[in-house]
Automatic annotation (TrEMBL):
Cofactor(s) this protein requires: [4Fe-4S] cluster
Lineage, opening ranks: Bacteria, Pseudomonadati, Pseudomonadota, Gammaproteobacteria, Pseudomonadales
Further comment: Reaction proceeds by a ping-pong mechanism involving intermediate methylation of a conserved cysteine residue.
Name of the gene encoding the protein in the UniProt record: rlmN
Species assigned in the record: Pseudomonas helleri
A single BP term in Gene Ontology: tRNA methylation
GO molecular function annotation: 4 iron, 4 sulfur cluster binding; metal ion binding; rRNA (adenine(2503)-C2-)-methyltransferase activity; rRNA binding; tRNA (adenine(37)-C2)-methyltransferase activity; tRNA binding
Location(s), subcellular: Cytoplasm
Protein name as annotated: Dual-specificity RNA methyltransferase RlmN
Leading EC class: transferase
Superkingdom of source: Bacteria
EC identifiers of the protein: 2.1.1.192
Physiological role: Specifically methylates position 2 of adenine 2503 in 23S rRNA and position 2 of adenine 37 in tRNAs. m2A2503 modification seems to play a crucial role in the proofreading step occurring at the peptidyl transferase center and thus would serve to optimize ribosomal fidelity.
Amino acid sequence: MIATTGKTNLLGLTQPEMEKFFDSIGEKRFRAGQVMKWIHHFGVDDFDAMTNVSKALRDKLKAIAEVRGPEVVSEDISSDGTRKWVVRVESGSCVETVYIPQGKRGTLCVSSQAGCALDCSFCSTGKQGFNSNLTVAEVIGQVWIANKSFGSVPATIDRAITNVVMMGMGEPLLNFDNVIAAMHLMMDDLGYGISKRRVTLSTSGVVPMIDELSKHIDVSLALSLHAPNDELRSQLVPINKKYPLKMLLESCRNYMSSLGEKRVLTVEYTLLKGVNDHVDHAVQMIELLKDTPCKINLIPFNPFPHSGYERPSNNAIRRFQELLQQAGYNVTVRTTRGEDIDAACGQLVGQVNDRTRRSSRLIAARELNAETDLAQNAAAQP
Ligand code: SAH
Ligand code: SF4
């Protein structure tokens, strides 16, 4: 567990909150914009580097505030350009963040919770159970860390991160307030300036919170469908028992129409061999979605140990895609990226916490060895 410092962490403050903070310490509100640019555009966490802020104010800030992202446990870069970070959050758990470059697009897949309570049967995060909600600083901190890794350029120039998807670990709608605040920071010009069309929240279907969403933000929405009927969906995505398909699709349609412009829902469908990949399932899906303008993203199952599921063959995946396409749907198949670093977005590996514990044990062991070496060297000195 990381000790809390008692200082205000400015990383997680939205613009109105930052202005309130400067107000509360008797400073001018325009300081909010200056400091936010240092933090989010330039990746600065040291107040002394904020050169357009007076020395007196910098000293004041050092005493009462901090800019603290989650601790980076590891950073891996795949041969295909995919990057993966494991970060440790305040609760002591680790979560993953993945960056996927694709042509002119760079998509960052961000986690919202450590673990997840919803226990979808094919999801490694679900197998961990729920551990903690990430704070605003921990959610936006993942963007901050990734952005810094491309060199500290202003976020609006040559930005490497063009899209953010809340498809890492956790159910974003069950950490509502923190995720909303972090998404505002992603879109704010004083934050990362990403267009609202390019910030996507993915949900397994927490209906009351989908209904609440449009009152707070207008980001893109992805629905994790995974089955075309209630019976099967309740087995795969247990929250379906509480909020069945009819209710769920209506809520998604309402949200999309509240956006007031032509934007369509993304429907995600993880293909599980022999479970939801039959011709019948495609036929049912065509019927189910006929009144819901959407594009469909098929995700071939990413296996993990003891999951009990398999990825369908490429032929089966293609057949499923073609059936939907023939019915007029726009259907993409997600390709697996970053395989050499275990980075498939949306199936972030559940064993991360075990692995992290193992690697911290290794580090501890190494430090112990180094200390022993030092002690032996010192003892060997004349
Ligand atoms: N909790 C949210 C967002 C995180 S999961 C949600 O469920 O939508 C992001 C996506 O990855 C979801 O569509 C999820 O169902 C899918 N997913 C989870 N485990 C997977 C696996 N092993 N293989 C393929 N897709 C998976
Ligand atoms: Fe949670 Fe999403 Fe995994 Fe379901 S698929 S257990 S909602 S993270």
